[in-house]
Write a structure and sequence with these properties.
The protein is mainly β. It has three helices and twelve strands, in the order E-E-E-E-E-E-E-H-E-E-E-E-H-E-H. The longest helix has 13 residues. The protein starts with a strand and ends in a 6-residue tail after the last helix.
Length: about 180
């Protein structure tokens, strides 16, 4: 490997994240600085692909303050409880954001996200047998609408033109469902 990472310096720190300036020697032998966004959490991000007992995928339309618009997503969350395991995080976020509880939870992928800027690890779970048991328990920065889509219409639904954005991980839903043994039909 030609790149040599040296040391980090905190450039900025907030309540939930910080920006690190990472010193390194580049491939041409020059000392440089790279900015890295780091979440101040206790582990990975869990992204949940929830499927109801009736064969519907649960999407959420979530207002995202950084983008100043709604974004089509599935439930997700950061590990903000020390010692929590990723599957427990996935179950908690599913319930908080949608009011649904899953009978089954299967880890289907561990990935890097936006690796040119962040050091996050994303864990993708397929939640099965989801049943509505409560109203969502939303935080003040969460304006969320739950949308149920039959599995056979999921790909067309994701591809529709709309007046809000679609989160990039949604395009992987067919792959993640296939890994969990679920067909879109």
């Amino acid at each position: 490997m030609k790149i040599k990472v040296l040391k980090d310096h905190v450039a900025w720190e907030g309540e939930w994240s910080r920006v690190i300036e990472r010193d390194f020697i580049g491939v041409h032998g020059e000392r440089e600085v790279y900015e890295v966004h780091v979440r101040k959490t206790h582990g990975p991000v869990a992204i949940i692909i929830p499927v109801t007992a009736a064969g519907e995928l649960i999407f959420i339309k979530h207002f995202r303050i950084p983008r100043k618009e709604f974004v089509l997503e599935t439930p997700a969350g950061i590990m903000d409880i020390k010692g929590e395991n990723p599957a427990a995080l996935a179950r908690r976020e599913l319930l908080e954001e949608t009011g649904y509880r899953a009978r089954g939870m299967k880890l289907v992928a561990k990935t890097a996200n936006n690796a040119g800027l962040m050091n996050d690890n994303y864990y993708f779970f397929v939640a099965t047998g989801c049943e509505k048991i409560a109203d969502p328990d939303l935080e003040s920065a969460e304006e969320i609408e739950t949308i149920l889509v039959p599995l056979k219409k999921v790909e067309a639904f994701i591809s529709q033109r709309r007046n809000f954005s679609v989160a990039a991980p949604l395009y992987g839903i067919p792959f993640f469902l296939k890994k969990a043994g679920i067909k879109l039909l």
